[in-house]
Amino acid sequence: MEFSVKKLASDAGVFFSRAVQFTEEKLGQAEKTELDAHFENLLARADITKNWTEKILHQTEILLQPNPSARVEEFLYEKLDRKVPSRVTNGELLAQYMVEAANDFGPGTPYGKTLLKVGETQKRLGGAERDFMHSASISFLNPLRNFLEGDWRTITKERRILENRRLDLDACKARLKKAKAAEAKASAEHELRLAQTEFDRQAEVTRLLLEGISSTHVNHLRCLHEFVESQTTYYAQGYQYMLDLQKQLGRFPGTFVGNVESSSPPPATTSPTTVAASIPAVPIVGAPNAATAVEGALTLNDVKPPASGTRKARVLYDYEAADSSELALLADEMITVYSLPGMDPDWLIGERGNKKGKVPVTYLELLS
C-alpha cells in the first residue's frame, strides 16, 4: 500500500510537471525542443495517410453496402467476432419477385416467359455482386482496417510517449536554468542527461514506425490493384450477362404474337418495340390471315421486297443468327429492312445482298 501511494504521488508529480511545461510553451514562456525537418515530414505524411485511409475505407464500405443499417449490423457482428449472416442482394431479391410474378401470370405466357428469363439474369447479376463484395472486402477493406486498428494505433501510442518524453526533457532544461546552487545544478544536469537519453530512444522508435508508412503505401497499392481487378471482373460479368439476355429476348419471334388477337389496338409509342409499324409491309400472296402470314414469313422463300417503301438501317451490335430464318448481323453494316403483315413488331425482315432473314429491331438504327 505504501509503494502504491508513493508511485501515485510520483506519477502525479510527473503529470503536473508536464502540464506546467505544456502550458508555459503555449503561453510562450518556455522553450520547446523542436524535431528535425525530416521527422516533421514523416509525422505529416503519417497523418495524411491515416486521414485519407479512413475516408477511402468509409466510402468503399458505402459503395459495397449502401444500406447504413446493414453496415451497422455487419460492424457489430465483426466486433463480437461472429460470422456475418448471409444477406440476399437487391438483384437476387428482384429475381425472386420476377419468378414469383411469372408463376402467377403463367410461365407459358409471353410476359411470364420473359419475366423468367430476366429474373434468371438478375439472379446471376446478384451472385456476381455478392462475389465482388466478398472479394473487395478481403483484398481491400480488411488491409485498410488492419492498418487503422493495428499499425496506426501503435504509431499513435508511441507518438504520445514521445511527446511526454519531450515535455520531460524540456522541464529538465528549465529546472537546470533555474538552479543556483552547485548541488542543485548537478542534480538537474543528471536528470537532463537521463531525460535526453529517454527522448532520443523514443524518437528513434517513433521514427522507425513512421518510416514504415512507405511499406504501408506499397501494401495498399497492391490491394488497390486487386480491388480494381475484382471490380473489372464484376462489371465484365454483368455486361456479358446482359448481352446474353438481350440475345435471348431478341430470339423470341413469337413473344408478342398474341397481341394480334387483341381486340384493342396497341397504344401509340415511339419505343423500339413498335418502330416496325413505320416500315412498309409486304403483302404475302395467299396468306388468308395473320397467323399464316407469320408462318410464311419464317420460310422467306417467296417474299419479295416492295419496289418502294423499304428503309435502310445501320446495325448497332453484332448479332448471331439463332436459326436459318434469321440474318446474322455485324456492327456498323448497312442493310435494307421491311415488315410483314402480322409480324411481331420486335422483328423486321432484313436483306443484305442475296441474303435475307429476320432481324431484331433493337439491334438497328432505322434511317430515313
UniProtKB/TrEMBL annotation:
SMART domains given in the database record: BAR, SH3
Domain SH3 positions: 308-368
Keywords carried by this UniProt record: Coiled coil, Cytoplasm, SH3 domain
GO cellular component, one term: membrane
PROSITE patterns, per database record: BAR, SH3
Keyword Transit peptide found: no
Protein name listed in UniProt: Endophilin-B2
Annotated family: Belongs to the endophilin family.
Coiled-coil annotated residue ranges, if any: 169-198
BAR domain: residues covered: 24-258
Subunit-structure text: Homodimer, and heterodimer with SH3GLB1.
Keyword Cell membrane appears in the UniProt entry: no
Lineage, top ranks: Eukaryota, Metazoa, Chordata, Craniata, Vertebrata
Chief location: cytoplasm
Gene Ontology biological-process entries: membrane organization
InterPro entries: AH/BAR_dom_sf, BAR_dom, Endophilin_B2_SH3, Endophilin_SH3RF, SH3-like_dom_sf, SH3_domain
Localization per Swiss-Prot or TrEMBL: Cytoplasm
